[in-house]
């Protein structure tokens, strides 16, 4: 059965069509600038006459209905399409940012679930409304195809109370649902499962720490197949220093800055999300490749950004070793985690000697492969695994549809 995986943003839409049995991607791509001038669709077929090509069509997409229609037209296009008719789509899996506490696992969509997702909009005002648009449009265009929602937050719902409660008046939790939720859950689940598979150890008996280091970054402690703590919090601005997000800061800084900079709290919040992190520390660089190059050239701005980033990762992992009273495997994933070989080596050597970690330089320099980069006598295994949230969404969707 083919699963159509949809990740709908406010002005963009990423999609993949995956054969769920073979787990082969038949096509993938994205629509950009939906509802904005200059919209376009990118379609990459992985089978059929134009396999491996990248087809870009510039066309007006006034709304998401047009965008999804265009994707579906591409999928069945006579020249470059990958299926003969839309009947070959057996299920649709939607990435949904926030499921709150009630939606603690992936679920088949119906009116009640949609209502619950609507209720979570106040917790993820930038993402859930866009996800809901994708759900509504797909239902409108393919009313008979079963659809599932897979939540970024769901994997972390197994966190114990001591990990998810903040030191705030308790009624803020009961009245306003303020707690640590965590994000990137689909990635953390996929990567931790894959680590167990590569190591040949039952998932339920492993203590793993997953470092998802992309533009957004989070770390997750996975004990016996369950998330027990994670670095993002009530929102994805918390935890590690990221591309443009500040990560954990003293909350008193917000009021202090409103006074010093004569800005309101919304503007400070925007700066914490968009102009902080690596970008803020380096004075305007956000791409990790530029930071790495700057570090090689001895650029002070890049060196300080890298120092803070690595220290954040190293110490957070240390906290999770304490949380689980040990660790069997540490995994690097996402854009920076998968490609930052020097950074991985530096963190392991500078900070994790106490864990008995030894890195195999040759394995560490391999790129594009899921690989154990520690030596056989390393006390803790270190791995690099390419994340694949879309495949995880397809798997979860397939499992629900089959039930
Ligand atoms: P993601 O959010 O997972 O797509 O990751 C984006 C980050 O990964 C950006 O900071 C990129 O600079 C970084 N990245 C992507 N490819 C590479 C690469 N080949 N080498 C170093 N960093 C990379």
Describe the structure.
With 403 residues, this protein is α/β, with parallel strands linked by helices. It is 39% helix and 19% strand. The chain contains 15 helices and 14 strands. Strands 5-4-3-2-1-6-8-7 form an eight-stranded mixed β-sheet, sandwiched between helices. It has a six-stranded mixed β-sheet with strand order 11-10-9-12-14-13, with helices on both faces. Helix 11 packs across helix 13. It is globular and about 55 Å long. It starts with a strand and ends with a helix. It binds adenosine monophosphate.
Shape: globular
The proportion of strand residues reads 15-25%
Strand order of the largest sheet: 5-4-3-2-1-6-8-7
Radius of gyration: 22 Å
Characterize the largest beta sheet: strand count, sense, and whether it forms a barrel: 8 strands, mixed
Distance between the termini: 14 Å
- Which oligomeric form is depicted? single chain
């Amino acid at each position: 059965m083919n699963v159509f995986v949809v990740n709908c943003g406010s002005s963009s839409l990423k999609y993949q069509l995956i054969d769920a049995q073979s787990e082969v991607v038949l096509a993938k791509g994205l629509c950009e600038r939906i509802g904005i001038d200059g919209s376009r669709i990118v379609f990459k077929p992985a089978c059929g006459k134009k396999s491996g090509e990248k087809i870009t069509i510039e066309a007006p997409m006034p709304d998401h209905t047009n965008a999804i229609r265009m994707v579906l037209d591409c999928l069945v296009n006579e020249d470059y399409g990958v299926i003969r008719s839309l009947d070959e789509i057996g299920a649709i899996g939607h990435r949904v940012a926030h499921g709150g506490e009630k939606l603690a696992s992936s679920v088949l969509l119906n009116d009640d679930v949609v209502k619950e997702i609507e209720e979570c909009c106040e917790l993820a005002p930038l993402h859930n409304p866009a996800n809901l648009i994708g759900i509504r449009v797909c239902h409108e265009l393919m009313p008979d195809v079963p659809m599932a929602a897979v939540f970024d937050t769901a994997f972390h719902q197994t966190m114990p109370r001591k990990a998810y409660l903040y030191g705030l008046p308790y009624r803020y939790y009961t009245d306003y649902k303020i707690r640590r939720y965590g994000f990137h859950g689909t990635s953390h689940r996929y990567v931790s499962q894959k680590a167990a598979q590569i190591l040949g150890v039952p998932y339920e008996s492993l203590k793993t720490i997953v470092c998802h280091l992309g533009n957004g970054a989070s770390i997750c402690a996975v004990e016996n197949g369950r998330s027990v703590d994670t670095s993002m919090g009530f929102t994805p601005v918390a935890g590690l220093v990221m591309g443009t997000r500040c990560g954990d800061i003293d909350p008193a800084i917000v009021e202090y800055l409103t006074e010093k900079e004569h800005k309101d709290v919304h503007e400070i919040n925007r700066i914490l999300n968009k102009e902080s992190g690596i970008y803020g520390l380096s004075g305007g660089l956000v791409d990790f490749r530029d930071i790495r190059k700057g570090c090689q050239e001895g650029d002070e701005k890049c060196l300080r950004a890298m120092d803070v980033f690595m220290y954040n990762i190293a110490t957070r992992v240390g906290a999770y070793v304490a949380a689980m009273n040990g660790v069997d495997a540490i995994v690097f994933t996402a854009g920076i985690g998968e490609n930052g070989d020097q950074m991985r080596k530096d963190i392991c050597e500078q900070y994790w000697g106490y864990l008995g970690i030894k890195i195999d330089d040759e394995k560490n320099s391999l790129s594009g492969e899921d690989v154990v980069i520690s030596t056989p006598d390393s006390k803790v295994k270190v791995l690099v695994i390419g994340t694949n949230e879309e495949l995880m969404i397809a798997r979860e969707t397939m499992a629900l549809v089959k039930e």
